[in-house]
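Figure S4 source data
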Amino acid sequence: MARQASRDGWPLVVAVGGDGTVNEVVNGLMSAGALVTLGVLNAGRANDCRRNFGLPSRFPLALERLLAGREVPIDVGLAEWPDGRHRHFLMSLGAGFDAATAERAERARGSGKAPYVRAILSTLRVHRPSPATILVDGRCHWSGAITQAVVSNGPYYGQGMKIAPTADPYDGVLDLIVIGDLGRMELLRWLPTVYRGRHLANPKITTARGATIDIEAQTPLPLHVDGEPCGKTPVRVSVLPSALRLRV
C-alpha cells in the first residue's frame, strides 16, 4: 500500500501503528524509489520510533506535527543476504539473543512491556553464546563468542532500551554494539542497565561505527530488523545516508 501510494504521487505517507508497521511502510517507500515523505503516528507496543526521532507521544500533538511540521532527511539501514534478499530498517538490526527474544515476543499475547519481558525470560533459559566474526568497513572488529550484536541507526530499541547512546540517524554511519560471552545470570544482571545506557561500562561489550558491517557465525544466528524477525546470518548491513524524509 505504501509503495503504491508513493508511485501514485502522494507527497506524504503516514504509518499508524507500532515499529513493525513503520518498518513495513519504510520498505514500501524505499522500494518505490519515488520522492516521498514518511509520517508516523506511533500506536503500537514498543514505539521506539517515537523515542529515536523525538516524535510526540500524545496523539493530538502528533497529528498537529504531521499537518504543520517540517521535513528532515534521515539515514536508513539496509540488510542484505547472500541469496539476494534485502530489508531496510530505520532503527536497528540485531543478531543473537535479542532476535531470539523478538521471535518469542512476536508470538506472545498481551500489551505493554509484559510480553517482551516474558520473552526475555524464556530466551534466557536456553541462551548459549555463539562464535561469530564481525567486520566493520572491511576490518575485523570481533572474532569470538557473542551473546548478541546490534547495529543501530538510533539510540533506542527493545521497548525503551538505550542500546546505542551515541547513535544518530542523521550522521551517515551506523553504530555497532557487540555483547560478548555473557552467562545467563550475568546477562540477567546486565539487562536493566541498558535502559539508562550504562551497559557500555561492561568490559565484555565493545562498540564501533562504520558504513558497512558484516556478521557471520559458525551456527547461523537469528536476526531482526526494527524488532521484526527476518532470517539468519550471514548478513551485510550498510547505511543509506539521508535516504528518506521524515515529517517531525
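Figure S5 source data
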Amino acid sequence: MSAFLFVDTKINNPEVYEEYKKLAKPIAEKFGGVYRARGGTLDVRQSELWSPTRIVLIEFPDMQSAQAFVDSADYAQVKPLRENNAECTLFIVDGG
C-alpha cells in the first residue's frame, strides 16, 4: 500500500533551497519515491487547522520506504539544508 510524504515549506533562503531540492530528489527516488506535487499552485478551500504555504507530495511504495528515506544516512547529509533555510511541517500518511 502506498504511503505519502507531505511537506509544507516556507522557504527563507531560495538559493540554498534550490541546492537542497537537487540533492534530495535522487535520494527520495532511491527509496522508490515519486514526486506528485512540488510547489505548484495552491487552491486552498478551507484552512481552519492550518494554512499551507508550499506543498511537496512524494508517493512511496509503502510506509517503510517513506520512513527509510527520511531516516536514511544519505538524507541526513542534505536535511540540514532544508532545516536551516526553510520552516517546514513534514508528515507521512498511509495511502490506505
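The radius of gyration is 13 Å. The helical segments are 14-30, 63-71, 73-85.
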